[in-house]
Amino acid sequence: MVHCKIFSTIFVYVILVQMCEGIWYHFLTGQPESEDKIIFMDKVVSPDGTEQRFETRYSGTSCYKVGPIQLKMDITRPKTFKKFLNKCHMSDLKLMHKNSPTEPYQIVKVDNKNFYNTTDGGCVPSVETHYVVLLQTTTPADETLLQIHNDLLGMGITILPKNNLSVCQPKRK
Hints:
By secondary structure, the protein is an alpha+beta fold. The chain is built from two helices and eight strands. It has an eight-stranded antiparallel barrel with strand order 1-2-3-4-5-6-7-8. Strand 5 (80-85) and strand 6 form a beta hairpin. The longest helix is centred in the N-terminal third of the chain and has 18 residues, at 2-19.
């Protein structure tokens, strides 16, 4: 029985890592106003073939890149991953809705544990929970928006502000 749980958890991890391919925009976010907004997460492949994930954030005046971000599977909790920057355990991410061909979005519950100070590299306690809707486009179809709305209502979430995605643009390859 334990082997089944481990394999299903590994399967979910593979799904999340595969779903992190490309650019994922933080379309709707309950991220606190006091934090710099995460606009999108993307994958960068170095010349030696190493893959790393970075977040692009907006400070209110400029965009900057943070990373590399590490996602580590939490084998004690299904569909949950620990997010690290350097050795700072920033948050736990629980996948509430998985991307699919008919529902092209993810809903993630973010349990913040610490804030990583990019100035001094410090890890400062910051306990807070919010939800994020991730999309691979900045202009989702009306049908997708309706599906997101219905899923959020089903979770008891009535208000989730739209992130201003126009403030930072990904570099085209």
